[in-house]
Amino acid sequence: MNASSDSGDSGSLVAGLRCRLCGTLYPARPINFCPEDFGPLEVDYHHDAVARTFNRAAIASRPRTMWRYRELLPLDGPPTVGTQVGCTPLVRADRLAKVLGVSELYIKNDAVNHPTLSFKDRVVAVALSKAVEFGFKTVGCASTGNLAGSVAANAAAAGLEAYVLIPDNLEAGKILGATVYGAKVIAVSGNYDQVNRLCSQIAFKYGWGLVNVNLRPFYAEGSKTMGFEIAEDLGWCAPDHVVAPMAGGSLIGKIYKAFKELEKHGLIGPVSTRMYGAQASGCNPIAALVKSGGKRIKPVRHPNTIAKSLAIGDPADGDFAASLIHATGGWSEDVSDEEIVAGMRLLAQTEGIFAETAGGVTVAAARRLIQDGKIDRDGSTVLCITGNGLKTQEALIDHVARPQVIPPNLAAFEELVGLAPVDSAGLVAAS
Ligand SMILES: *Cc1c(COP(=O)(O)O)cnc(C)c1O
């Protein structure tokens, strides 16, 4: 315990930022690492004060947005950015379950999140609301695609100036989906890790609020709402298995943290959920660490996969994600580009959900984990679908049939689909 906590002020439920390595508690400020040992910082709460209002009935009485869990989100006042985000559908996926060979399967569908069709709207809502509380006028991010669009859109709606830095090889839909909002989008000739390093330099030199750099501890808390919503929509119950895609490795840990916080406050029973992480084989540092049983991430220097949103070679939360996966009794798989495309098509054709490449990663990894007996077929399983397929059309363009062109008459239609022509009396013509 550390004396530097600012617990008393302003009635905030946030106790401060705690170092994940040494446990020291710091006041809530725009910093992302411990000055002592450079460990990452995580938001801690005054749980006694949280307990006074955080209960099932209070939550159920609030609007269906991610802010219904506001006691465990790190703001001092009401949210000002992204007030409509979250509460996406949890879909019972029986047709996909049949193909995968499991009895109880759900899709958490953040492909339809508001406003930019990915789970990133959750983290950005928290980070930019916090940026406003801190008084930042200029914000930004290092992005693999979805964060770019979400920061750009939410900053536009909040009247904040936004700088968005991306690797120069992203999909057209991701780039257009950021520039349209008027953000300054800068493509860097390098991979995500190089973009991220540049953003750290910018944040500290110019004093801007970069959502996944100096605002990262607050940003990351937004991911918990995916876990809160899953448990509430399952009737206040954590599932047996969760499969989540991993980029920096933050989301998977925060979903689990959400279940543990609900357990701590008595909103759900004891948690025994196993966490499963999904990556692409072309950038699999966390999956490789889980499989090797080692302690430290070996960075992937040259990511090469169609799942560009997950292509982080040196993931900030990779070590923690791998140890969490082991601690819960879960596992991790990585899948090829062909499997990713097959996963996207399978989800679309069984459940009518068009996910981006990261969704293909999740479905394909789940398929392998079930086949290998890592996920048991009788438990409940939730697949986290985190982005929308309309933004990564390049991945499918050579894999789906083009429509056939016909002249505008019935005979041509019937010839194409192989139907026998029918005469005007409704009788099939003799041929
Ligand atoms: C950012 C992102 C993730 C996961 O991010 P983490 O860095 O692991 O928290 C998953 N799916 C999509 C589509 C993303 O954009």
From TrEMBL:
Please provide, alphabetically and separated by semicolons, the GO molecular function terms listed in this UniProt record: L-serine ammonia-lyase activity; threonine deaminase activity; threonine synthase activity
Task: Please give the cofactor(s) recorded in the UniProt entry for this protein.
Answer: pyridoxal 5'-phosphate
Per UniProt, the keywords (alphabetical) are: Lyase, Pyridoxal phosphate
Keyword Isomerase included in the entry's annotation: no
EC top class, as a word: lyase
Which domain of life, per UniProt? Bacteria
Q: What is its EC number?
A: 4.2.3.1
**Could you tell me the Gene Ontology terms of the biological process aspect for this record?**
isoleucine biosynthetic process; L-serine catabolic process; L-threonine catabolic process; threonine biosynthetic process
A Pfam family for this UniProt protein?
PALP
List the CDD domains: Thr-synth_1
N6-(pyridoxal phosphate)lysine, modified sites: 120
The Tryptophan synthase beta chain-like PALP domain extends over 84-387
Which PANTHER family does the record cross-reference, listed alphabetically?
Answer: L-THREONINE DEHYDRATASE CATABOLIC TDCB, THREONINE DEHYDRATASE, MITOCHONDRIAL-RELATED
**Which family, according to the similarity comment?**
Belongs to the threonine synthase family.
Q: Which NCBIfam families does the record match to this protein?
A: thrC
Task: Please give the name of this protein.
Answer: Threonine synthase
